[in-house]
Amino acid sequence: MSSDPIVMEYFPALLSKNHSERFFEKMKTHFAEFGYGLWALETKQTKEWVGFTGFLNVTFYASFTPAVEIGWKLNSSFWNRGYATEAASFCLHCGFEQCKLSKMVSFTSIKNARS
Question: Name one Pfam family in it (predicted).
Fold first, then answer.
């Protein structure tokens, strides 16, 4: 998915398999350290992998930092079906109610109207 030019259109670069594996390891460490991170998304019926969603700490300076980001990345074949909206809604509820986060943000390129 992270090597798909359509999915990665508004990201800085495509990710190689090696970069994707390192990202996965980084996410496991983030989850262990902070108690939250990214979750796999799958369809209820077929358990087909849709993508991922969850929380990441924002690691750069911006007017809204420090903050926790609600993020997602979906395989393009699952776009425009409500999966990202459903996942973001779940993250909002989980973030405030279960993780007790006081602030969450989400951001993307201004050109990325789909998100």
Answer: Acetyltransf_3
Domain with residue 96: its CATH number is 3.40.630.30
Band of the pLDDT at 101, cuts 50, 70, 90?
Answer: very high
> Could you give the angle at the alpha carbon of 56 between the alpha carbons of 60 and 90, nearest 5°?
140
| Domain-embedded: residue 57 | yes
State in Å, rounded, how far the first CA of the chain is from the last one. Answer: 16
Q: Can you tell me the distance from the alpha carbon of 38 to that of 55, in angstroms, rounded to the nearest whole number?
A: 6
Q: How many domains does the chain have?
A: 1
Q: What is the pTM of this model?
A: 0.84
21 located within any domain:
no
Does residue 88 register a pLDDT over 90?
yes
User: Residue 49: which domain range?
Assistant: 39-105
Check pLDDT > 90 for residue 4.
no
Joined tokens for residue 1: 């998915």
